[in-house]
Amino acid sequence: MRLLVLSPNPMIRAGTSALLARGGLPQPVEELDAPELVSAALRRAAVDVAVVDIRQERPGVNGYCVARLITDTTAGATKVVLLSHEQQDIDVAAALRSGASGVVPHHSAADSLVAALHSVHHGGLYLDPLALSAVFTAPAAAPAPAQAPLTRREDEVLHLAGQGRSNREIAAALVVSEGTVKSHVHRIMGKLGSETRAQLVAYCYEHGLVRPSAAPTAPGCPAYADQRP
Known about the structure:
It holds the Pfam family Response_reg. With 229 residues, the chain is α/β, with parallel strands linked by helices.
């Protein structure tokens, strides 16, 4: 796994490298202290996962901007895990919409970052439990109208997708084929203007469609293994 770490804080960079070593992961191929260095770093080396500090010491620049830059530059080939400092820093919907595949607060359990890196490297989506708690303590936005009304079945599929369930799990829950679920997901994404499965999950978080009781409860919540529609 080829890793890039971006943080203006040298302690964060050093701590991240130490956690990687403890977790049996290789040291970063790039350690950067400023977002303007990212593009050149991505040209120098192929990076599998970028660990990006949400806080950047540049006016108007944060980790969400950098995540969008990385995913756009690499056409999604480089996955992004965002590190947050405080619970109030965490905007899961913004993280997902920026293209990030994982969110881990600095004060999470030490193995959360390693778990997140493994999950996103294998195509998953990782939301630390502390990140999820920030979602559920924030006020939900008013439901936004879809470009076209969702059918009852599409609404069921949307709620299950928002819980992080894969197409296979949704198919089992609704007793339909995976192909049928995939078709529903494609139509839902078109109606809601979502380009990726992660953006679909973000929509559910933003509009209060996912409740704490429906959130994944496995340790670390490495729940969303299937992001493809």
